[in-house]
């Protein structure tokens, strides 16, 4: 039986739920936002390009016949932009039931963000780390709530603490694999810290999906994605499942593929590595993290 992201019997299933999805202007995020919109959720997504955000919002509204679709401008490589986006989200919505850290990038060459941080690490790991921490109190207050991170089967190696930004020898694949390992380590540590709060944290591997992710890859890589990748709709199945299914409401700290819990690398299950990465991420984002009025998750 083909598993679909959305079926008519899912209509209304997410009514009353506020979902925030990063990077829904294309690929897996767009299909996830569309499915959740069709399920009746209030769907808010981030877009770095306002024009693309408006077009995507209008398309999702039209197809889902759901007026409660909105976007917030956010350049995820910028910590201040992530912070501003979260402030706007709090002002406008004041509650959050599902946060999907979906956006991701593959950088062919080493690029640094406006904060001077290597882009893969900034977008794929620090942005979700900061955004989650800035919105966590909203989720706890309105629990049950779910946090979902889109990792990858390519996660691997370890965290290169001596040179996490690959300043000396940049390698696109190693930078990407490290960032996707970081997604899993983050979710494992977050889930541990969230025990008893009613907020769950899980991650997923969507498989190979024909999306814009390969836009920066070499010609062979782009062709490989195009030919062998699943459709973005299929790629969104597990994101939508984790966001909405009653079956997963009490599961936390796991990684899913094709809607099933899967085993991930030895390093991704190392709690000491996860704690060390958390500390490093705090150091990077210190200035923007909630201090007084916010959370103490230590
Ligand atoms: N495709 C695959 O085979 C595959 C496999 C495993 C895991 N994944 C993961 O799946 C997630 C979604 O990727 P996708 O495949 O759907 O790729 P995609 O089509 O390229 O979508 C990525 C989304 O992230 C946004 N984004 C990228 N960099 C950004 C930045 N600096 N600031 C703000 N937004 C930014 C993009 O915005 P724009 O539209 O403005 O570019 C887009 O909306 C990623 O985390 C990726 O690592 C993908």
Description:
With 298 residues, the chain is α/β, with parallel strands linked by helices. It has a single domain (8-284), classed as NAD(P)-binding Rossmann-like Domain (Rossmann fold). Helices cover 42% and strands 12% of the residues. It has helices spanning 27-38, 50-64, 79-93, 119-141, 172-193, 219-228, 232-235, 237-244, 271-285, and strands at residues 18-21, 42-47, 69-73, 98-101, 145-150, 199-204, 255-257, 260-262. An 8-stranded mixed β-sheet has the order 3-2-1-4-5-6-7-8, sandwiched between helices. Residues 293-298 have low confidence and may be disordered. NADP nicotinamide-adenine-dinucleotide phosphate binds next to helix 1.
Keywords for this entry:
9 helices; disordered C terminus; globular; eight-stranded mixed β-sheet; single chain; binds NADP nicotinamide-adenine-dinucleotide phosphate; Rossmann fold; alpha/beta; 298 residues
> What's the CATH class label?
Alpha Beta
* Quantity of strands, as a count: 8
Count of helical stretches = 9
CATH topology, by name, is Rossmann fold
Instruction: Name the poorly predicted regions.
Output: 293-298
The shape is globular
Chain-averaged pLDDT: 94
CATH architecture: 3-Layer(aba) Sandwich
Radius of gyration: 18 Å
Major β-sheet, in short?
Answer: 8 strands, mixed
Overall helicity: 40-55%
Instruction: Return the structural class.
Output: alpha/beta
Bound molecules: NADP nicotinamide-adenine-dinucleotide phosphate
